[in-house]
């Protein structure tokens, strides 16, 4: 029995590390992380014509400032996106100068991603915590990405709270099963198998046609043994 439990823990660790590792993080999540941000700002800018006479000038300016850095981020130029090039500001300056605006939120979100890619997880947390998105996908990603940061900082109890919060924020077939699975793997790593089974079963019952749901039975079986 002890040998079985040791092997079980080892297998869980392998899967857990694969899911939460930040190696190739940017490449694996590029579309969701970048295009989600771009989608937000496109919607925001669509209202500028209507709002320009009543909006705060700094709000409009923040939206204009962030475009060049978003373009650099989309093209994998992380350092240029963060620092700018002398002719336009990077996310780091925009996040500081336009905090509390929509452009500032985009900049803080993007700097969080960049700091994760750099391996600076505490700095990434500071940026993510300085955002305030209502958008379902990006707002939820901001919460879940904080869970990933806490995993890398080896604070699994806090990490799983963020994964559960992200999963439950606004249920949908993209972010909900993804963060439920992350929560389940974290619970397994913590040895909390009843909670792991609970979140895995929710994927099985409510999101069976998603990528996470397609093989969730094996995770339920593993946590049950």
Secondary structure topology:
Layout: H1 2-20, H2 25-28, H3 30-46, H4 48-51, H5 57-74, H6 78-83, H7 91-97, H8 102-118, H9 121-128, H10 136-152, H11 156-169, H12 175-190, H13 193-206, H14 216-224
Structure overview:
It is a single chain. This protein folds into 2 domains: 1-21 and 156-225, Serine Threonine Protein Phosphatase 5, Tetratricopeptide repeat (Alpha Horseshoe); 23-118, no CATH class. Helix content is 76%, strand content 0%. It contains 14 helices and no strands. Helix 1 packs antiparallel against helix 12 (175-190), helix 3 (30-46) runs antiparallel to helix 5 and helix 12 (175-190) runs antiparallel to helix 13. The chain is elongated. Residues 47-54 have low confidence and may be disordered.
Count of folded domains: 2
Principal-axes shape call: elongated
Distance between the amino and carboxyl termini: 10 Å
Q: What is the β-strand count?
A: 0
Show unreliable segments.
47-54
Structural class: mainly alpha
Biggest pleated sheet: none
Element-by-element helix/strand order? HHHHHHHHHHHHHH
Percent helix among the residues? over 70%
What's this, in brief?
With 225 residues, the protein is mainly α. The protein has helices at 2-20, 25-28, 30-46, 48-51, 57-74, 78-83, 91-97, 102-118, 121-128, 136-152, 156-169, 175-190, 193-206, 216-224.
Keywords for this structure?
single chain, 14 helices, mainly alpha, 225 residues, Serine Threonine Protein Phosphatase 5, Tetratricopeptide repeat
